[in-house]
Design brief:
heterotrimer; A mainly alpha (261); B alpha/beta (347); C mainly alpha (281); B: 347 residues; alpha/beta; Rossmann fold; Alpha-Beta Plaits; six-stranded mixed sheet; four-stranded antiparallel sheet; C: 281 residues; mainly alpha; globular
Chain lengths: 261, 347, 281
């Protein structure tokens, strides 16, 4: 475990070194990357000029959710996004060979190889906005609330990674299957207040395709609205899915045919 | 115990054929056509620890596929293999720490960073202690004469330098078994020479077992004491290079120099004239008749100098490959990929 | 179809162009799995938007109107925007062009006696054609399922104007993407920039929410940018938000942007290719 954390740090540093070579690009991205977030806030600002709550969520609660989803997916993009995008290419071009040969978990290596620092500002902006919303909500600050919030953010990122990794593994069968595009669409489910969905769909999105666990759970945990059973379920589900993703990946590797050079 | 052992190793690829054109694309939509390619067919052989063996065969003969199975990258369709007592495709960490695969046409170094960073990363991955890593890398850098290039961005390196650093990256954990796939492809003669010396040293001093494929006969002649010959997925020969020549080449070459210019008609009686230039000539004669013909030539012509040689190894191999076509005429290129010519793969 | 959008002064419509369109079609068909899945999964953001807006209008007063959109108008906006999105499949051009410039595959085009930009146009229009045919399925489903809420153009002239505005809008979308792609001649690494530019374009074309929701001074600027004329303007016609005079003025503006972008992309290409040749790829 310690070994893997050290290795992750080393990969991180290597990526940072590389990133610094392309500074102009980096700045351009900083200038444009938070537009989606700002526009979402603008949209809800306009809407709340006409209504006082949406599906039981007040303005700053909705903003809290928007900020959390921006930050959560920011973390995911920083750590995993580039890697997930590259996995189908690794399989198609045979570059996976190099990873398979290394005496380290292949799943770890291909998932953690590239860090994307362009998404770091998103994460920071998201969390700052969340802090501002928390202040506006006059929620009593407590370390327990903050800790559960952090726990469920980490859980959300891990869960989303696992779901994506399993789908990306399908590239072993369908080389041109670009799971990423599909998942980008699915994130729209995670970003909405859960109560927008009809109860049956909400159940499915919590227990079958647990997209609501990713962003809604940390927010609800902070606001003290998350039932204990649901919280435990979320943590267990993530653990199970992580184990499942490993089994599935090992199985899929049997299909690997290592494209000739 | 053998370091590397393959028993009846077989790999069959199934590919979906994509047809060109609009109608082809439409047909592929409903009824994809599958073909089977038998890349490796019952390959059995063994390598003793410390042995350096050459692996010969034309493109698509199954060399790389065999190598990849032994390195654990591919699951065989049937058959078994054992490398240092491990089953390769289980890919245990202990196994992967003890082997290495070098692919001449591919590169694992970070393109935009100096080679040093990639070597440092591999140290972390293989868990090599710093001192040991430093010592090994320094030694190798000195042997390959790339010491002053360590801090240069990989993309700025020449092809030869890149290959040398690739070798160092693959060997810094001091593997016991090394698989090399075309290590000198595309390199100039000096770099090739340098890499061969390096490999010979690795084999001799570190007792590394090496299995090497190459189209470059100089690599095989210079390094391998024993060769495996594979064609159409089957092992055709396993033994020293010399027996390969004996077994497969039916002819010898007589090179002679006379005291006077020679004419073709007087030579034709002894054998096929391969070259004639004034007093110098080269004749091709059946192997079993070589001693007799030598006597006859010495008696009939004013010979100053005469040598009996084997034909160039390249010629022999080309001959073997042509003779050993498989019984069925359906010879397909045993490649995993058969994608149509598409130049916009991006999405 | 929009022959007007051919980069001027280049090769005339020919067998060659048809050949390239065929390649584009085969490519789209060969990867039908991705294709069909893409269409199915693109429904998800649509559905979540619709559910969100339903919740919003439910929370407000009866007959609530936001920036002039009542519930049916808002839902129709998202539905038709989604259908247009299925057909506007030209954004890939910016990725293709960037990759070909950076990866050096551009050279193989330069050595052949064909116009690079025109080839790209052929490929993308073929994709649009395929997408349009396939989009008929979800389109008819939407019309049947949502017929009780769907707002349709009232007059024949509105239908006509809508079709014209969409055809020109596709060309504008293509040229905008092409220009962004061609910027790779100047920037070594633009992939990250493209990633960031993509959501920007989606916002400016009205995919996230109707642009008129923006504060008035912001809309005064955004409403005149070329992105507005990709999809937002055709939608305004569809929903009957513009009278005849406004439609005529809009079409004029659209034509103006089309001409400007044609000129700009031609200029970018000629400057870029000179730079490319000078640097040696």
């Amino acid at each position: 475990m310690i070994r893997y954390l050290r290795l992750w740090r080393e990969l991180f540093i290597t990526c940072l070194l590389r990133e610094m070579l392309f500074r102009a690009n980096f700045i351009a991205i900083l200038a444009t990357s938070s537009w989606w977030f700002v526009m979402n806030v603008v949209m809800f600002q306009v809407i709340f000029g006409h209504v006082t709550e949406i599906a039981g969520w007040t303005k700053y609660e909705i903003f809290f959710l928007v900020g959390t989803s921006h930050a959560t997916f920011g973390i995911f993009e920083t750590l995993f996004m580039v890697n997930m995008t590259r996995i189908p290419d690794l399989i198609r071009t045979g570059e996976l060979d190099f990873y398979l040969l290394k005496p380290v978990s292949t799943q770890f290596l291909i998932s953690a190889r590239y860090a994307d620092f362009e998404a770091v500002p998103n994460t920071i902006v998201g969390f700052l906005f969340v802090a501002w919303c928390a202040a506006k909500l006059h929620a009593v600050f407590s370390w327990t609330a903050l800790a559960t919030f952090a726990l469920f953010v980490v859980n959300g990122v891990t869960l989303y990674y696992t779901l994506l990794f399993v789908s990306v593994t399908i590239s072993f069968w369908f080389m041109r299957f670009h799971a990423m595009n599909i998942w980008w669409q699915l994130t729209s489910l995670a970003r909405q207040p859960a109560e927008v969905f009809p109860p049956a769909l909400r159940f499915v999105l919590t227990y079958c395709l647990p997209m609501l666990v990713i962003v809604n759970f940390p927010v609800k945990a902070y606001l003290g609205r998350l039932p204990l059973a649901a919280g435990i379920w979320a943590l267990v589900a993530t653990g199970l899915l992580l184990a499942l993703s490993q089994v599935f990946f090992t199985f899929a590797l049997r299909r690997y045919r290592s494209a000739s050079s | 115990m053998a370091a590397v052992e393959a028993t009846a190793l077989t790999k069959v690829f199934t590919t979906v054929k994509r047809r060109g054109g609009l109608t082809g694309a439409f047909r592929g939509l409903f009824r994809p056509e599958r073909t089977e390619v038998r890349a490796v067919e019952g390959a059995s052989f063994a390598l003793e620890p410390g042995e350096l063996v050459g692996f010969l065969g034309p493109n698509g003969a199954g060399k790389t596929t065999t190598l990849k199975m032994l390195a654990g990258l591919l699951h065989p369709t049937s058959g078994s293999a054992s490398v240092l007592g491990f089953t390769p495709w289980e890919r245990r960490d202990d196994f992967r720490r003890r082997i290495s695969l070098v692919m001449g046409a591919k590169n694992q170094l970070w393109w935009d960073l100096p080679a040093r960073d990639s070597l440092a990363l591999n140290r972390e991955i293989y868990g090599v202690p710093y001192d040991r890593w430093k010592k090994t890398v320094d030694e190798m850098i000195e042997m390959l004469e790339v010491g002053n290039r360590l801090e240069v961005q990989v993309r700025e390196l020449s092809l030869g330098e890149r290959m040398k650093f690739e070798l160092i990256a693959c060997l810094l954990h001091e593997p016991q078994v090394l698989f090399l796939d075309e290590p000198t492809i595309g390199l100039d003669v000096v770099s090739q020479q340098r890499i061969r010396e390096f490999l010979r040293d690795v084999n001799a001093r570190r007792r590394t077992t090496i299995l090497l494929t190459s189209h470059n006969m100089a690599d095989i002649k210079g390094l391998a004491s024993r060769v495996l010959l594979i064609n159409h997925g089957r092992i055709m020969h396993d033994g020293p290079l010399a027996t390969l020549i004996e077994r497969w080449s039916g002819t010898k070459r007589l090179a002679l120099t006379a005291s006077r210019p020679l004419v073709r008609s007087e030579l034709a009686a002894f054998g096929e004239v391969l070259a004639l230039d004034g007093p110098a000539a080269v004749l091709c004669v059946p192997r079993d008749r070589a001693p007799a013909v030598t006597g006859e030539v010495l008696a009939a012509l004013p010979v100053l100098d005469l040598t009996v040689e084997d034909p160039p190894i390249e010629d022999i191999i080309a001959e073997i490959f042509q003779e050993t076509r498989p019984p069925t005429s359906a010879a397909k290129a045993p490649k995993a990929e058969s994608s149509g010519g598409e130049d916009h793969e991006w999405e | 179809m929009g022959v007007a959008a051919l980069p001027a002064s280049l090769v005339p419509w020919s067998r060659l162009n048809r050949r390239f369109m065929t390649i584009g079609l085969s490519d789209a068909l060969a990867y039908r799995g991705t294709f069909i899945l893409g269409i199915v999964f693109a429904m998800i953001p649509l559905a979540t938007s619709l559910l969100l807006w339903l919740a919003i209008y439910r929370a407000g007063a009866v007959g609530l109107s936001i920036a002039g959109f009542d519930l049916h108008g808002m839902l129709s906006y998202y539905l038709v925007m989604h259908l247009l999105g299925l057909v506007y499949v030209v954004e890939d051009v910016q990725w293709d062009v960037t990759q070909q410039i950076r990866g050096g595959t551009l050279n193989s085009y330069l050595m052949r006696p064909i116009s690079y930009c025109l080839v790209q146009w052929d490929l993308k229009m073929a994709a649009v054609l395929v997408a349009a045919v396939i989009a008929l399925i979800p389109a008819s489903l939407v019309v049947i399922a949502a017929r009780s809420i769907l707002v349709l153009p009232a007059a024949a002239w509105q239908w006509g104007a809508f079709v014209v505005a969409v055809l020109v809008g596709i060309q504008i979308a293509f040229l905008l993407s092409l220009c962004i792609g061609l910027s790779a001649f100047w920037f070594l690494e633009t992939s990250g920039f493209l990633m960031a530019a993509f959501p920007m374009q989606m916002i400016l074309s009205g995919s996230l929410f109707p642009l008129e929701l923006l504060p008035k001074p912001v809309y005064a600027v955004v409403g005149n940018l070329p992105w507005t004329y990709m999809t937002y303007f055709p939608l305004q016609i569809w929903l009957g938000r513009l009278d005849a005079a406004a439609v005529a003025r809009g079409l004029l503006f659209q034509a103006g942007w089309l001409a400007a972008l044609l000129g700009f992309s031609t200029w970018l290409w000629s400057r870029g290719i000179r730079r490319y040749e000078a640097v040696g790829g």
